[in-house]
Fold this sequence. Notes:
Elements: E1 2-5, E2 10-14, H1 18-22, E3 30-32, E4 58-68, E5 76-81, E6 88-92, E7 95-100, E8 107-110, E9 119-129, E10 145-150, E11 153-155, E12 161-167, E13 171-182, E14 191-197, E15 203-210, E16 218-228, E17 241-249, E18 252-261, E19 266-269, E20 273-276, E21 279-280, E22 283-288, H2 301-313, E23 318-321, H3 328-337, E24 340-344, H4 362-377, E25 383-390, H5 398-414, E26 419-424, H6 426-429, H7 431-441, H8 456-462, H9 465-476, E27 481-484, H10 490-496, E28 502-507, H11 512-521, E29 525-530, E30 546-547, H12 576-584, E31 592-596, E32 605-606, E33 615-616, E34 628-634, E35 639-644, E36 647-653, E37 661-667, E38 672-679, E39 682-690, E40 697-702, E41 706-707, E42 715-722, E43 735-741, E44 743-749, E45 763-765, E46 770-777, E47 781-789, E48 792-801
Parallel strand pairs: 22-23, 22-29, 23-24, 24-25, 25-26, 26-27, 27-28, 28-29, 41-48
Antiparallel strand pairs: 1-10, 2-3, 2-4, 4-9, 5-8, 5-10, 6-7, 6-9, 11-13, 12-13, 13-16, 14-15, 14-17, 17-18, 19-20, 20-21, 30-32, 31-33, 31-34, 34-37, 35-36, 35-38, 38-39, 40-42, 42-46, 43-45, 43-47, 44-46, 47-48
Amino acid sequence: xxxxxxxxxxxxxxxxxxxxxxxxxxxxxxxxxxxxxxxxxxxxxxxxxxxxxxxxxxxxxxxxxxxxxxxxxxxxxxxxxxxxxxxxxxxxxxxxxxxxxxxxxxxxxxxxxxxxxxxxxxxxxxxxxxxxxxxxxxxxxxxxxxxxxxxxxxxxxxxxxxxxxxxxxxxxxxxxxxxxxxxxxxxxxxxxxxxxxxxxxxxxxxxxxxxxxxxxxxxxxxxxxxxxxxxxxxxxxxxxxxxxxxxxxxxxxxxxxxxxxxxxxxxxxxxxxxxxxxxxxxxxxxxxxxxxxxxxxxxxxxxxxxxxxxxxxxxxxxxxxxxxxxxxxxxxxxxxxxxxxxxxxxxxxxxxxxxxxxxxxxxxxxxxxxxxxxxxxxxxxxxxxxxxxxxxxxxxxxxxxxxxxxxxxxxxxxxxxxxxxxxxxxxxxxxxxxxxxxxxxxxxxxxxxxxxxxxxxxxxxxxxxxxxxxxxxxxxxxxxxxxxxxxxxxxxxxxxxxxxxxxxxxxxxxxxxxxxxxxxxxxxxxxxxxxxxxxxxxxxxxxxxxxxxxxxxxxxxxxxxxxxxxxxxxxxxxxxxxxxxxxxxxxxxxxxxxxxxxxxxxxxxxxxxxxxxxxxxxxxxxxxxxxxxxxxxxxxxxxxxxxxxxxxxxxxxxxxxxxxxxxxxxxxxxxxxxxxxxxxxxxxxxxxxxxxxxxxxxxxxxxxxxxxxxxxxxxxxxxxxxxxxxxxxxxxxxxxxxxxxxxxxxxxxxxxxxxxxxxxxxxxxxxxxxxxxxxxxxxxxxxxxxxxxxxxxxxxxxxxxx
Length: 802
């Protein structure tokens, strides 16, 4: 079988009706390579919704011409779409060929009936995005597309499924279920062979079995193999094996598939919690959306991989896809890098949350989308939990609980090797009951800030008897109860439901110290998933602080772009909350310094539920000397000492009893500030910040200088303003231009949450002294990147694609 990338040579344009085209309306389109987000190139406007980052709605048409050789006649030809947002309708040679309403399911369209052999054929995909999501979802062919060509006797496109049902220290049993199809008019008995190799390529197991297929029939070939002294997959040792399966018919190899898998054992109970290979594991989790920052929703392979690299470097060992199935590229990265995954199905079942969302398709399509969801995840050792939903209103009534049972049993039918949860917010589950009560007490139908803005009141409701009874059946169909903002139930449920295992599937980031203490103290609580690990597009400003001298509003006004609640910003740069979390997790012993932005000092704050302080790690400010400043120090030590230009300005208690933080009020003076951890009365580890001195220059670095030319690789170029000693000049704002030869500049931007600039231009302003460019190869060869800024010497970077 041939599986070829089908990502290059596409054209995209706004969709116009066939009748409008008669009158000359419409454009010729723009050439693009996939994955691609068509909506991200549109102009934002205050007239649009902030939940969608102020992007407009859009309908688009992707098209591609491709050659179908005469030798394809008598073969099976199909196209696999890993994800199309949204309401995809596929046409081949202007005839309907298939569709998929859900924007996150992989699906395959058979082309055989539509093809003309020995000539060019056309494929066209129509998509739309219109008030169908609570965050920025993008629009278009935003995940990989593959062309599949096979013989009539073949391994089914879904491929082999690998399980490891029996594992001990000496050996592991590996079972392969290989789905076969015979599209020929004759009976045949092909031979299925599999070789398993370890990460170094050594052969560790093999097996063969014949399988008779009647004409037009399908069957499953099964092989039971064993590996001696298996290398187990875990977060710290993500060992992978590869099973190469071949299909030989009449002495000729007609198909082959390569399947990567891991050997690992999962256990779950309220006494030991989650165990992986017998080792108790707490989930240091991050909720993440599917967008890739400056790239919009485009799920380019390297962008997905880098996301996991940086989240793991920041101390997370688990991610929750929120609130939709992950891309295969992201799961591949989690397998390789050692990141646990809670993959999630839907944000909606039958009750809509937006005007034209998936609830319109759910009753008809949910089963097929669950099948696609599980098929995608089955061989990924990183996936340990399936989540069947997020904050689903249906979960608070008996018939809604029946939907949860149907989804759970469908997942178990397809895969009983993983655990099932659901991100239940008891407040949302009981809203139909609560709203009349709330209306009787107030003129407002819901608390300020919408559902999630209820804060402590939400936590109180989650612990109420009303929620206990309303959600008992919905939790009963799960292996683990996922609680969104329900930490008030952690201790309560240990008494009420002693067999219940709990996951904090969504939590407020400022509460991580309190929540993590609960996680550590209770074996039945598996971990914490913060909202969110990475900043994302849409739901603008939910993570900002609002000041009391401002008119309160849940959604930030235009030109806000991001939610601003991530530990990492839109470019992957770690914010102060990330280092605080690392200290709470026990992964960092050195203190950390952050400084409140001067414009926030002295103002009374209405803290957001997802907001950190308005601080950055900088002592470089464009303010007058003696301007009042506030310095934050995070530390696991008993206390810290702050030193300014060699002078001690005092000590303060830190450590767990003081929520790991201390603040110092002091006047600004340029120079150096340093924080020392005090352990046993003595100075220990320290961290410092400096003001920049003298002129600054461009400092440029890249995450890779040699790239794959296959279209899935990227180079991330960090551009910073630094002085001669390497101090970042966060106080300087510069316009920077980037020119690329031999490749494409696909994005240029910063992590600024209220950015007015576009990311597809060649010039962009720095934010806090830094900027990021993303380079995508268009083919093999040398790449030259030239960076210019006012009053700075140009920098040239040499890359290569091969």
